[in-house]
């Protein structure tokens, strides 16, 4: 397992990032931002998939301030509950700062060049926050949570952002989805795709949540988005 050590911007410590490297010169770098389950096998597999597409892929351990190296399984009820508890304790502002430091490391690894981010669940929310608060070149969020509470930051989104919205998401209810569309549909840098009847976690690499056809469609749109804005 290949990792990098990244220093926090606030000099409070350092954290690890899983790294998958492509053959040859990277097209660009992509940060893979974890769900509430940590940098687990599914997130690492996402990194490997992007590496096969020619990207340098990094998955920072954003829960390191709580406990480094957390890996949880969404299909195990006790671990799902543990993940929810971690989410409640997680400092999202510091998480975005850790993403910013990872962007800097990724650019240094590339010797310059573009850096994108893709996040899932909590990671989808953080991808939106990164689009508004950092100089990330392109961002994608899958089933991002709580975006209705972040619409006040939309004016700061200056680079392309893509959001995948499953319409039957039991964590992001229809009224929240409606606010997302009302607030973002006319934003020149934001694209939203709905997935009728799909639930939260439909694009997980592993486990019972995955919905194959919708996951493949979303991943194809993500690949095309990054090819257009990063490569």
Description:
Helices cover 37% and strands 19% of the residues. It is α/β, with parallel strands linked by helices and 231 residues long. The protein has one domain: Rossmann fold (3-Layer(aba) Sandwich). Helix 3 (92-110) crosses helix 4. The longest helix has 19 residues, at 92-110. The chain starts with a strand and ends with a helix. The model has no long low-confidence stretch (mean pLDDT 97). This is Carboxymethylenebutenolidase. Residues 15-229 form the Dienelactone hydrolase domain. It comes from Sphingomonas pokkalii. GO terms for molecular function: hydrolase activity.
Keyword list:
231 residues, globular, Rossmann fold, single chain, 37% helix, 8 strands, alpha/beta
What topology does this entry show?
Elements: E1 3-7, E2 14-20, E3 29-33, H1 41-52, E4 56-60, H2 77-89, H3 92-110, E5 115-120, H4 122-133, E6 138-142, E7 161-166, H5 174-184, E8 190-195, H6 212-229
Parallel strand pairs: 3-4, 3-5, 5-6, 6-7, 7-8
Antiparallel strand pairs: 1-2, 2-4
Protein name: Carboxymethylenebutenolidase
InterPro entries: AB_hydrolase_fold (IPR029058), Dienelactn_hydro (IPR002925), Dienelactone_hydrolase-like (IPR051049)
Pfam families: DLH
Helix/strand order? EEEHEHHEHEEHEH
CATH superfamily: Alpha/Beta hydrolase fold, catalytic domain
Total strands: the figure is 8
Question: Which spans of ≥5 residues are poorly predicted at pLDDT below 50?
Answer: none
Largest sheet: 8 strands, mixed
Assign the CATH architecture. 3-Layer(aba) Sandwich
Beta-strand content = 15-25%
The overall average pLDDT, rounded, is 97
Give me the secondary-structure category.
Answer: alpha/beta
């Amino acid at each position: 397992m290949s990792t990098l050590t990244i220093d926090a911007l606030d000099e409070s410590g350092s954290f690890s990032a899983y790294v998958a490297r492509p053959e040859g010169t990277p097209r660009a770098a992509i940060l893979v931002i974890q769900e509430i389950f940590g940098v687990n096998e599914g997130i690492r597999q996402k990194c490997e998939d992007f590496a096969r597409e020619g990207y340098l892929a990094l998955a920072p351990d954003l829960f390191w301030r709580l406990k480094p190296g957390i890996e949880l399984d969404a299909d195990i009820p006790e671990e799902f509950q543990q993940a929810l508890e971690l989410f409640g304790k997680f400092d999202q502002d510091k998480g975005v700062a850790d993403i910013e430091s990872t962007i800097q490391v990724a650019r240094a690894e590339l010797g310059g060049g573009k850096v994108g981010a893709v996040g899932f669940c909590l990671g989808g929310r953080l991808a939106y926050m990164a689009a508004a608060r950092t100089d990330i070149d392109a961002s994608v969020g899958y089933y991002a949570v709580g975006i209705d509470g972040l619409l006040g930051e939309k004016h700061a989104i200056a680079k392309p952002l893509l959001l995948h919205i499953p319409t039957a998401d039991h964590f992001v209810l229809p009224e929240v989805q409606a606010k997302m569309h009302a607030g973002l549909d006319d934003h020149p840098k934001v694209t939203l795709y709905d997935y009728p009847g799909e639930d939260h976690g439909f694009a997980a690499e592993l486990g019972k949540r995955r919905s194959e056809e919708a996951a493949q469609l979303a991943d194809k749109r993500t690949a095309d988005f990054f090819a257009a804005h990063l490569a």
